[in-house]
Amino acid sequence: MKIGITGGIGSGKSYVCQRLKAHGIDVYDCDAAAKRLIRTSASIRQQLTELIGPDVYVGDQLDKAVVARFLLESEANAKAIDHIVHPAVFRDFEKSGMKWMESAILYESGINKLVDCVIIVTAPEEIRIQRVMQRDNISREKVLQWMQRQWPQEEVRRRADYEIVNDGIADIDKQVERILSDISMTCRNNDITK
Questions:
Q1: What is the distance between the alpha carbons of residues 3 and 147, in angstroms, rounded to a whole number?
Q2: pTM of this prediction?
Q3: Are residues 120 and 164 in contact, defined by beta-carbon separation less than 8 angstroms?
Q4: CB–CB of 166/11 below 8 Å?
Q5: CA distance 156 to 158
Q6: In whole angstroms, how far apart are CA 80 and each of 35, 70, 72, 87, 131?
Q7: How far apart are the C-alpha atoms of 56 and 20, rounded to whole Å?
Q8: Helices 30-40 and 75-96, axial angle in degrees (round to 10)
Q9: Which of 34, 61, 127, 192 has the fewest CB atoms in 10 Å of its CB?
């Protein structure tokens, strides 16, 4: 059984994944994998350079500002990048042998097709905005731009199998334990810790 963890920007997915780690569960981080593959894959580098231009890489590093500007210019630009990066991440996850994955754009990317069960991490919009502004030191407008690129929280919640509320009040550990107990009861091999 493969399990996906999702949630909009600023919902606190990474924190939930840290709590899962305390239960012996390693979670494949799609965002970190994408960054690694963008840095190390010659094929991705060539495709992004052809798409965006020669200034997209500075040495071995992707110029995030150049990519962000291109990405936010249009939906077509965003989709063009996605068509390069997402398939590489999908293949990497399948090769990893891991059973848990974290992806902010689980449904948008189509990677949800690789998992059997989805957990969404939710938080009120204003809390999410404040978290991202503080974490990334960016403006409210920029956070809203990023949020608009993702599906609405309610839409993802409707599709997910489980929800973890990360509003700063609800007990995350109790929610995680309840979900792990439920998943282990429904999972045939009961081996969900890899």
A1: 23
A2: 0.84
A3: yes
A4: yes
A5: 5
A6: 16, 10, 12, 12, 29
A7: 35
A8: 100
A9: 61
